[in-house]
Automatic annotation (TrEMBL):
Organism: Zhongshania antarctica
Family matches, as InterPro entries: Thiolase (IPR002155), Thiolase-like (IPR016039), Thiolase_C_2 (IPR055140), Thiolase_N (IPR020616)
Gene3D superfamilies recorded: 3.40.47.10
GO molecular function, one term: acetyl-CoA C-acyltransferase activity
Keyword Lyase (UniProt): no
Name of protein: Acetyl-CoA acetyltransferase
Keywords annotated in UniProt: Transferase
Transferase as UniProt keyword: yes
Length: 411
């Protein structure tokens, strides 16, 4: 949807293992920082969209997680909308908040994504990811993945899926194998994504991992499912990120100098494309650029959902940053690195910044707002004026269950 909303403030906790903190503590820390950054009081908020995906499983908090978190910091009376939409949870919250502001329903809205995934019982954590597919179709999904591998002369052992690893690793490994088979993409190019994001993440004080790793380090690491090694896959994490979305009228009231324009933000659900029909991602990207009145050539920087190295490579292509099949060459050339043509995942991405499911989408917005303000420090993209966020989640049939795309700009 074409939007007319602004981001006035952002806040974020460090991502990582926060077993010593409660879900509420994480949420409140990011919200306080976002309100301070916006320069507004909590009493000025008209509504709150609270994004949490795994709290019911990990903490047992069901039904009213948003109200519980907000009440603990004295925010009440306003409408509170709890959002759960797989890895696209807080990106969905952001899209909905921007839409309500654009429609004139609210002037100042809180968006918060917050999550705890670390748990003594790893099976609880893995169950969150297993539940992000159609659990009544697990056998059918497994059969389809094995058939896709067999079609390119590969075998796929899924005996550890859901117990020693997320089932999504098997999905990503299949994507990687197909891309390598069809386009000649190499393991070195997959590793280049992880190495590049490690360099970016080393510059981000909120990142879960801040050590720099090389392509050789990535290739020598423990293999999860061939061809993916551990650094090619996003880790679990705990953390929170918050965004204050305001109307143009309210932005003028508080001063627009540091406000960032939301030009377009769309929410899409996947489908099984018929032969000759554009798949969900391609269709959604085309619509987003049309709504924003922009194209891939206008984008200064991107935060995208690099749940695996192949995910980032495929989305270079989906977003039009390079030609179909050229994603491996794109990253290997340095085009997506700081100083390159279109820096991607300057935050470190999911693979290095971390991936607390419910917080990921909002954290992408935090990074892009900092870039567009010129406040990203050593990872600043020179002259950044237009930024794109892509956040997908879940898997049904042959496609993502949810996809949120947003374009922001510096006015």
């Amino acid at each position: 949807m074409k939007q007319k909303a602004y981001v006035a403030g952002v806040g974020m906790t460090p991502f990582g293992n926060a077993m010593d903190k409660t879900l509420n503590e994480l949420a409140c820390a990011s919200i306080k920082d976002a309100l301070k950054d916006a320069g507004i009081a909590k009493e000025e908020l008209n509504a709150a969209y609270m994004g949490n995906a795994a709290g019911a499983v990990i903490t047992g908090q069901v039904c009213v997680p948003g109200q519980v978190a907000l009440r603990s910091m004295g925010i009440s009376k306003i409408p509170v909308i709890n959002v759960e939409n797989a890895c696209a949870t807080s990106a969905t919250a952001f899209q909905q908040a921007c839409t309500m502001v654009t429609l004139g329903v609210y002037d100042a809205v809180l968006v918060c994504g917050y999550e705890k995934l670390y748990h003594e019982d790893k099976n609880k954590t893995f169950s969150v990811f297993t539940g992000s597919i159609d659990v009544t179709q697990t056998d059918a999904i497994t059969a389809r993945l094995k058939a896709r591998n067999e079609a390119i002369g590969q075998s796929l052992d899924m005996s550890g899926a859901g117990s020693s690893r997320s089932i999504f690793i098997d999905i990503y490994a299949t994507w990687a194998r197909e891309h390598m088979h069809q386009y000649g993409t190499t393991r070195e190019q997959l590793a280049a994504v992880s190495a590049k994001n490690s360099m970016h993440g080393s510059l981000n004080p909120k990142s879960q991992f801040r050590n720099v790793i090389t392509v050789d380090d990535v290739l020598a690491a423990r293999e999860i499912v061939s061809p993916l090694t551990l650094p090619m896959c996003a880790p679990i994490g705990d953390g929170a990120a918050a965004v204050i979305v305001v109307s143009e009228k309210y932005a003028n009231k508080i001063g627009k100098q540091r406000c960032i324009r939301v030009n377009a933000s769309s929410l899409n659900s996947g489908w099984d494309a018929a032969e000759g029909e554009l798949p969900m991602v391609s269709s959604a990207v085309a619509e987003l650029y049309d709504q924003a009145g922009m194209g891939a050539e206008d984008i200064s920087c991107v935060e995208l959902h690099d749940a695996s190295a192949i995910s980032e490579i495929k989305y270079y292509e989906y977003l039009g940053l390079c030609e179909s099949g050229a994603g491996g060459e794109f990253v290997a050339s340095g085009a997506s690195s700081l100083g390159g043509r279109v820096p991607v995942n300057t935050s470190g991405g999911l693979m290095r910044k971390g991936h607390p499911i419910g917080a990921t989408g909002a954290a992408q917005i935090v990074e892009l707002v900092m870039q567009l303000r010129g406040e990203a420090g050593p990872r600043q993209v020179s002259g950044a004026r237009v930024a794109l966020a892509e956040n997908g989640g879940g898997y049904i049939g042959t496609d993502a269950a949810a996809l949120v795309l947003s374009i922001l700009s510096k006015e």
